From TrEMBL:
This is Transcriptional regulator MraZ. Keywords: Cytoplasm, DNA-binding, Repeat, Transcription, Transcription regulation. HAMAP family: MraZ (MF_01008). One of its GO terms (biological process) is negative regulation of DNA-templated transcription initiation.
Length: 148
């Protein structure tokens, strides 16, 4: 279970170091295997899944009927772009250049632990998203019963 927000620096080679607080989990629970792919819902964000979690997501997405354009788009963005990455001896993973460019991730980024996966945001996209508030008209029935 991943949670928390960490400011990350991406080095000149496009690598990011897995934060110390997650290294044991990534090594043990994830067997040092992560899959990085696009977030099909939010620009400026990539998803990093533990490999076992990824297999379930991949299979669900691939099972969608290909006759709908939205399904094909999701399959392309999630499955077609997926890249398996493994931390090196310094706990760094190489982010694919095409994904970094598409998400606008440069030197500074933000890594969010989101339960079953990580979200890697460009610093600018993360700041813009955090500054947005949830309006009353956006509150769903499921949100309304939360005790916040």
């Amino acid at each position: 279970m991943f949670q928390g927000e960490t400011a990350i620096t991406v080095d000149d080679k496009g690598r990011l170091a897995i934060p110390t607080m997650y290294r044991d989990q990534v090594a043990g629970e994830c067997a040092n295997r992560l899959v990085i792919t696009y977030n099909p819902f939010e620009p400026g964000c990539l998803w990093l899944f533990p490999y076992a979690e990824w297999e379930q997501v991949r299979d669900q997405v691939n099972a969608l009927p290909k006759v709908k354009a939205a399904h094909r788009d999701m399959q392309m963005k999630l499955v077609g772009a997926a890249a398996e990455v493994e931390p090196d001896g310094s706990a760094r993973v190489l982010l694919p250049a095409s994904q970094r460019a598409a998400a606008g991730i440069e030197k500074k980024a933000v890594l969010l632990g989101m339960g079953n996966k990580f979200e890697l945001w460009s610093e600018q996209a993360h700041l813009a998203k955090i500054r947005q508030s949830i309006g009353e008209d956006e509150i769903t029935d499921e949100m309304a019963v939360l005790r916040l």
